[in-house]
C-alpha cells in the first residue's frame, strides 16, 4: 500500500520543511509515502471562497488514482488518539487497497465535490493550525502510528 498526503501551497519555513523531510524519511522504513504539494491558486484574491475551493478541488481530484481511498483532514472529521489511528491504518492495510490518500485543504477547506468524493473525514484537533504545521503533525502521526504497530518504543503508552 502507498500512503499519499496532498496539500495546497508550499511550506516557506525551512525549519518545518526540515522536520517534514525527517519524518518523511523515517516513514520510508515502514511504507511507501509520498507528499504531493499543489501550488497555490494564481490570482486567488480575485476568486470567492467557493470558487477557490472548487479550483483547488479540481486540482486535487486530478491527482487521485481511480481506486484510491480519499480521506479529508477536516475539522469536523472523526477524532482519535494515536493508538486508535494506528488501528485505523492497520484496517486499511489489511483491506488490500493500493493507495490511501489524505488531503489537507486550502485556507477555506474543501469544495462540495471533494466532500462527495471522500471516503471519510479525519480531524487532528478541534484547534486550528496553519496548513504548514498540519503537514508536520500529520506526517509525525503517521510515523507514530507505524511505530505503534511495530511495538517500537517511539510512542509511550
UniProtKB/TrEMBL annotation:
Reactions catalysed according to its record: pseudouridine(1915) in 23S rRNA + S-adenosyl-L-methionine = N(3)-methylpseudouridine(1915) in 23S rRNA + S-adenosyl-L-homocysteine + H(+)
Superkingdom of this protein's organism: Bacteria
Record-linked Pfam families: SPOUT_MTase
Membrane-crossing residue ranges in chain numbering: none
Function recorded in the entry: Specifically methylates the pseudouridine at position 1915 (m3Psi1915) in 23S rRNA.
HAMAP family the record matches: 23SrRNA_methyltr_H
Assembly with partners or alone: Homodimer.
Protein name: Ribosomal RNA large subunit methyltransferase H
Organism: Flaviramulus aquimarinus
